[in-house]
């Protein structure tokens, strides 16, 4: 079986509106993506969790701050 290409949109945070391309099943997407922002001060981490809905397709949604 050949892999199929999928698109996942980033929702929220500094990556909002960007798209990630992945292939499955051979290259299954990461369930969580961590974005590290370095700006000359302390580093800032943002975590995005993968989800799927029939209306929006694949999305990496910004995890709420704890």
Could you explain the architecture of this structure?
A 5-stranded mixed sheet has the order 2-1-5-4-3, with no helix packed on it. The model has no long low-confidence stretch (mean pLDDT 84). β4 and β5 (57-62) form a beta hairpin. It has no helices and 5 strands. The protein is an all-beta fold. It is elongated and about 45 Å long. It has strands at 4-11, 19-24, 32-37, 44-53, 57-62. The protein has one domain.
Model regions low in confidence, pLDDT < 50 over at least 5 residues: none
Structural class, from secondary structure content? mainly beta
Q: How far is the N terminus from the C terminus?
A: 41 Å
Number of domains: 1
Which band does the percent of strand residues land in?
Answer: over 45%
Number of helices: 0
Helix-strand pattern: EEEEE
Overall morphology: elongated
Could you report the average pLDDT, rounded to the nearest whole number?
84
Share in helix: under 10%
Numbering strands along the chain, what is their spatial order in the largest sheet? 2-1-5-4-3
Main β-sheet description? 5 strands, mixed
Tally the beta strands.
5
Q: Radius of gyration from the CA trace?
A: 13 Å
List the defining traits of the structure above.
66 residues; mainly beta
């Amino acid at each position: 079986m050949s892999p199929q290409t999928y698109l996942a949109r980033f929702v929220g945070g500094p990556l909002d509106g960007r798209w990630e391309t992945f292939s499955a099943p051979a290259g299954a997407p990461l369930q969580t993506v961590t974005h590290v922002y370095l700006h000359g001060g302390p580093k800032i981490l943002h975590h995005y969790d993968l989800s799927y809905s029939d209306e929006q397709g694949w999305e990496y949604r910004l995890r709420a701050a704890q």
